[in-house]
Structures are given as structure tokens and as C-alpha cells.
Amino acid sequence: MTVVGPFGLSVRDQALEADVQTGLAAVEAGLLDATKSDVPFITEAAQHLVRAGGKRFRPLLVMLASQFGDPYAPGVVPAAVVVELTHLATLYHDDVMDEAEVRRGVASANARWGNSVAVLTGDFLFARASHILADLGPDAVRVQAEAFERLVTGQILETAGPRDGRDPVAHYLDVVGGKTASLVAVSCRFGAMTSGADESVVDILTQYGERLGVAFQLADDVLDIASDSHESGKVPGTDLREGIPTLPVLLLRAQAEAHGSPDDLALVELLDGDLADDERLAEALRLLRAHPALEQARRDTVRYAQEARATLTPLPEGYAKSALIELCDAVVHRAG
Fold it and tell me: Model pTM?
């Protein structure tokens, strides 16, 4: 039993382990190749986050989904490179929008080279992903275009905020569906599509990825508050300090608005204040960790992970299906 991929996923079959490890190694080589330019500075900027590492969660899903067809089909690895390049490109853009200074333990591209270079590097990665995608055929191009539209829509919805009368929690779940779940779903879809799996299997794995993607983001929301370590890849309270809305905070605000508890209102006031002060941030984290909103966010994370798991029921039993189920369990474990 070997640990591969994010969250210490255990693969219980030597053949599957070999396929996954070989596939991920090929993806890594493909990422480095795709981020090379005749201009050395562009190569340096484009490979900045590639070389910083990462979970490679989306390529892993491509590899596992391909097991339901021919995992050695020529389009599988390029599809995994496409989804990871797309993900990396969004990180360059996100860091500019969030004014982030650190990403994956290194200085963000915008902190190192400025916003203009970071945005343009993200665009370069999108262009390279599109170039690879063109060789996968018009269906793959269409799937990626639809996912990219959802991703951008999710980002716009987050920036604009909920319209008047719209439930902020429901709005946030729409944002998560676009920003995160869309690309996770495409990872599963591409893995199945490029391996030649049956259309019914492609649909099942796409639905699985959609629900897993939401669970994955909600687990990160919980970790930002509940973690005492760097499990999320960020210092706990980073989203709080930056004023980024997360599910536990939105649930707290909804409860404060509905019931008007003095303690809840005081906590909301604290969150709306200046959390650049370490003591104020620590106090906000302490109170949120003890608040029922955090446990509700955990339950919502579990619910989406359980829904993802349930979608896999019609698929044939096997090590690949077991690995996908274990990913659901791993996401839940991250949320405590």
C-alpha cells in the first residue's frame, strides 16, 4: 500500500499505483515542457508555481477516472496537463485580486514581479493549455470552454457579491460551484473521456467531481479556522484576515441576523474590524472555533462528500472506484 497524491491517498493495488505514479510523473514533465518559452523571463515566471509544488489534485483525478477506460490512451496525460495549467493560471490571477504575498510557501508572482507580470503569466498559461487542448479534439475544447465560463462566472459572482434579497450562503455555494467545482468536475470528465469510457461513466464521474469539488473547498473553509497547522497550505485565519467570505463566517452572519444574539453580534463586529492585529485575529479564531457555525460548515462538507461518494454507486467495483471513495473520506478528514 503506497501513499500517492494529495491527503496521503492510499492505493491498494500495485498496477493502479504504477499507473497513477507513472501518469503523474508524465504530467509533471508535461507541465515543465508547457511552461517553457523562448524568452527566459517568461519561463521563469511561468514555472514559478509549477516548481513550488502542489497537491496535483486535479491530475490525480484525471488518472483515476481514466481507469474506467484505457488509462494508456494518448490523450489522458495531456488532459491532466491542461487542467493543472488552467488551475495554475487561476492562481496567478487570484493572487493579484487578493493582493496575496505568498503562494505554496514562496513569494507570489505578483509580490515578486508585480501585478502586470502575474496577470500576463496567467494568460500565458491559459494560452498554453489551449494549445494542448486543440489536439484533444472539438469535444474537449467545448467542455473546457464551458468549464472556463463557469469558473470566470464564479469569480465575478464572488467579486460582485449577492444581489439584493439573495441568500448569501446560497450565493456562496454558486461561487464555489463555479470557481472550484467546475474544474474538478472537468478533471474527472477529461479522464473518462480521453480514456474512451462509456458516456454513462463519463456522466457519473463528472457528477462525482462536481460534488467533490464543493466538499474540497468547504473543507478548506473549515481548515482556515479550525487548523492549528498549515494543513490548508495557508496560515490559519488567512481568509479571515483578508476578509474573504467563507462558509463558517456566512453561517455565523446568518445566525446573527436571524436571532440577534449579543455574542454573535459582537463576533460579527470583531470580524468586521481590523484583523491585521494578531491578538484580534487570535480572538476571532478562538470564538469561531467554539461557535456552532463551524460545526454546521463541517456537516455541510460531509454532506457534499457523501453525495459525491453516492454518485459512484453504479460504477463497477474495483481499486479505482475504491480510491475515488477514499478521496471523499480524505476530504471529510481534512475538515475534522
Answer: 0.92
